[in-house]
């Protein structure tokens, strides 16, 4: 896939989020250095104590030594506190911004992306994958930088004290380093896989909860639990296989470390007896050795954190590299206020290559006219209206709005003049007022009231204790189909679009609701270029043109009376429906 040139790629995320806060990164580095260096005072104080202070019997010297150690220890505590504080806050801040960027990118992806993506998987991308990055920035990086720093300084000091002993120690440490590297190159794909399984399991759970009515209705709880269990078990197996590798590294470390200690006792003891080494040197050496090795031992922790973070980063980046729908380079025609003329010229479309579902459509919808799309299920009506909304781009041919090629039009300038009412229209969890105001949050109270009345929403909200302030549940489940439909119509009236798409907006309604809805739809359609897709042919008798679609082609067109008179496909559909 082609990389985006917009301001959303991960490289840009670092440029826009991390780089501006480089001051904190710098302060963090300075704090790491101070904290680690002050830690190193301890081994040297011990050496001084054994080699100088104790033999001299000087209590003043002892006091000064203790004071120095006290200062160093305090400094270390304060700097590491400040460091963790700064890093944790920075990491949280980064995560908040990164999540917002990922969300902003996802919702700007073309609608085709969502046809194939699972909601829960996307949620997991936004929340879990990004969390891995927090670990990286929050503690992983600081530990790694601090660890490498401590290890190197300690190593230099160890060599300075005794090159012989250092050499002996380095052999098992090198073996350990080699083992860990091998282990982590094996663990990385396991972590990548883990992110994937996690997303799948989360995705399934989200779907299960969203479709709970269907699941209960078909008594499928057990089956859903089995599927979920299988996913969780895969997750368990994945974690288990990485645990095997990490615990091997830990055990190898313990063993090699034990070996090194035994060696030091031998060589150190011998060198002290031969007076090649002082007691103080020996003491400082063992303490410094701890300083050098601790970070290497922590590698298994930091290593898995980093591996996890990188896996999350990879997956986030993959998503961020998908091109967004509103590519500003291609869509550079800003529409002024439009008349609302829509023209299709020899338009073809296929969801998959080699499988066209729209096969050469031509029509013109004049400003303010009503075009009805009629045809059997699967004939391509929704696909055509999707191209009017620019959710889908034709694979061949041209769609124009007021003469402009829609595929080059800036989507903001177009969609702000478009309205869509769907069969099972989406309502947010929130109040009825919020749901109606959603396309135009700053609309006046008068405009809102007018929309509410035109769509007969007040006819049922007046009976609610809280009226328009009534909260509707997730997907508006507490409203009836007809009430939800009226709410969706009020929303579209308030949005006041030039072009309007009604996709099966009147199907499955009871007779009483339908009356209200027919009237409110008529009000909504007045003066707008409207596309109506309807099962109920009675709703399209007034259309300016009726396009009869079969298998992606227009097989008949005309007004109701003309099509009835010609006794073709429309006549069949109409008389068939009249009979039932
Ligand atoms: P209608 O609205 O007339 O019932 P559609 O436009 O929804 O028909 O569908 C036209 C054809 O395209 C059908 O064969 C359908 O299976 C196919 N189709 C619809 N949506 C998708 C999609 N997201 N991916 C692949 N094929 C699709
Ligand atoms: Mg459809």
Structural commentary:
This protein has a domain at 10-320: Up-down Bundle (ABC transporter transmembrane region fold). The protein is built from 19 helices and 12 strands. It has helices at residues 10-18, 22-39, 41-56, 59-107, 111-116, 119-161, 163-210, 212-217, 221-273, 279-320, 381-388, 411-415, 432-437, 445-454, 458-461, 481-495, 511-525, 560-566, 569-579, and strands at 342-352, 355-365, 370-374, 396-401, 404-405, 418-422, 430-431, 471-472, 499-503, 529-533, 545-550, 553-558. The strands form 3 sheets. The chain has a 6-stranded mixed sheet with strand order 6-9-10-3-11-12, with helices on both faces. The chain has a 4-stranded antiparallel sheet with strand order 2-1-4-5, covered by helices on one side. Residues 115, 351, 357, 375, 377-383 line the site of adenosine-5'-diphosphate.
């Amino acid at each position: 896939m082609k990389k985006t040139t917009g301001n959303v790629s991960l490289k840009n995320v670092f440029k826009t989020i991390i780089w501006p806060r480089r001051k904190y990164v710098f302060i963090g580095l300075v704090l790491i250095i101070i904290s680690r260096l002050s830690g190193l005072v301890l081994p040297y104080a011990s050496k001084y104590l054994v080699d100088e202070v104790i033999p001299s019997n000087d209590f003043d010297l002892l006091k000064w030594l203790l004071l120095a150690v006290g200062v160093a220890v305090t400094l270390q505590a304060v700097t590491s506190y400040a460091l963790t504080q700064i890093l944790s806050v920075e990491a949280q801040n980064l995560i908040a911004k990164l999540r917002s960027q990922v969300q902003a990118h996802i919702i700007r992806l073309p609608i085709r992306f969502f046809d194939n993506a699972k909601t829960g998987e996307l949620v997991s991308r936004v929340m879990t994958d990004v969390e891995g990055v927090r670990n990286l920035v929050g503690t992983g990086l600081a530990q790694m930088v601090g660890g490498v720093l401590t290890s190197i300084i300690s190593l230099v000091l160890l060599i300075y004290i005794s090159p012989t002993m250092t050499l002996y120690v380095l052999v098992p440490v090198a073996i350990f380093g080699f083992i860990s590297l091998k282990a982590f190159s094996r663990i990385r794909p396991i972590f990548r896989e883990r992110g994937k399984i996690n997303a799948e399991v989360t995705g399934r759970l989200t779907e299960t909860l969203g479709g709970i009515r269907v699941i209960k209705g078909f008594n499928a709880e057990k089956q859903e639990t089995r599927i979920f269990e299988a996913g969780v078990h895969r997750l368990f197996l994945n974690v288990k296989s990485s645990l095997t590798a990490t615990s091997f590294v830990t055990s190898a470390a313990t063993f090699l470390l034990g070996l090194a200690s035994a060696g030091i006792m031998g060589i150190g003891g011998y060198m002290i007896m031969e007076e090649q080494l002082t007691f103080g040197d020996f003491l400082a050496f063992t303490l410094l050795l701890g300083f050098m090795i601790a970070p290497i031992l922590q590698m298994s922790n930091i290593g898995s954190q980093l591996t996890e973070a990188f896996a999350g980063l990879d997956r986030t980046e993959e998503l961020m590299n998908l091109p967004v729908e509103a590519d500003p380079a291609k869509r550079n025609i800003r529409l002024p206020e439009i008349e609302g003329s829509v023209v299709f010229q020899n338009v073809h479309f296929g969801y998959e290559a080699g499988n066209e579902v729209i096969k050469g459509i031509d029509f013109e919808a004049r400003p303010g006219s009503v075009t009805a799309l009629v045809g059997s299920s699967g004939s391509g009506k929704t696909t055509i209206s999707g191209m009017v909304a620019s959710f889908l781009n034709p694979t061949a041919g041209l769609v124009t709005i007021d003469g402009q090629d829609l595929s080059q039009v800036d989507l903001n300038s177009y969609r702000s003049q478009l309205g869509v009412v769907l069969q099972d229209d989406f309502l947010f969890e929130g109040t009825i007022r919020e749901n109606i105001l959603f396309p135009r949050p700053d609309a006046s109270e008068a405009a809102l009231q007018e929309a509410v009345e035109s769509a007969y929403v007040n006819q049922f909200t007046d009976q609610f204790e809280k009226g328009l302030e009534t909260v509707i549940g997730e997907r508006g489940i507490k409203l009836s189909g007809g009430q939800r439909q009226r709410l969706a119509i009020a929303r579209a009236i308030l949005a006041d679009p030039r072009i309007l798409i009604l996709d099966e907006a009147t199907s499955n309604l009871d007779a009483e609701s339908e009356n209200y809805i027919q009237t409110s739809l008529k009000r909504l359609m007045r003066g707008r270029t409207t596309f109506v897709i309807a099962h109920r042919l009675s709703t399209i008798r007034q259309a300016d043109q009726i396009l009869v679609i079969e298998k992606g082609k227009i097989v008949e067109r005309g007004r109701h009376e003309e099509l009835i008179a010609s006794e073709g496909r429309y006549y069949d559909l109409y008389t068939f429906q009249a009979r039932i």
